[in-house]
Structures are given as structure tokens and as C-alpha cells.
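lol forgot to send this yesterday, sorry. C-alpha cells for the thing we talked abt
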């Protein structure tokens, strides 16, 4: 299983965390997501071989959030 740390601008509360988790969990190959508005980071655990760069697309329909970085 792969792990990615996604920095997100715009998370300000627990409701924001829920929106981010739901958007990322809907992506194919994603197994688990945690999100923290305090750190502005989502931790994503996914199957090996899942294409990178899918987070921006997942958030494109949700106003107010921007992916600012992805670390593996």
C-alpha cells in the first residue's frame, strides 16, 4: 500500500475535514483518508500503482479548497 501526504489550503473546521475525506475516499484505489484542518494536511493510503495528481480533480467541484502539495 502506498502513502501520500496532501497539503490543502482552505480547511478551517471539522466539516471541511469531512468534505475532503469524502472527496478523496471516492477516488479509485483509495483505502483510507485522514484529514486535519489544524495542519491543513490529508493523509491518503492507497493501492500501489494509483495515478498521481488525482487530488486536484477530486476537489475541483468543491468551492474553497486548493491542493498546494503532494508528498510521497
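and heres what i got for the seq, position by position
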Amino acid at each position: 500500500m502506498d502513502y501520500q501526504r496532501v497539503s490543502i489550503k482552505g480547511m478551517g473546521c471539522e466539516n471541511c475535514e469531512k468534505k475532503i475525506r469524502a472527496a478523496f475516499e471516492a477516488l479509485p484505489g483509495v483505502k483510507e483518508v485522514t484529514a486535519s484542518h489544524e495542519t491543513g494536511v490529508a493523509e491518503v493510503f492507497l493501492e500501489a500503482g494509483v495515478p498521481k495528481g488525482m487530488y486536484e480533480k477530486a476537489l475541483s467541484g468543491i468551492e474553497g479548497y486548493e491542493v498546494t502539495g503532494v508528498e510521497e
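The helical segments are 14-25, 54-59. anyway ping me if u want another try
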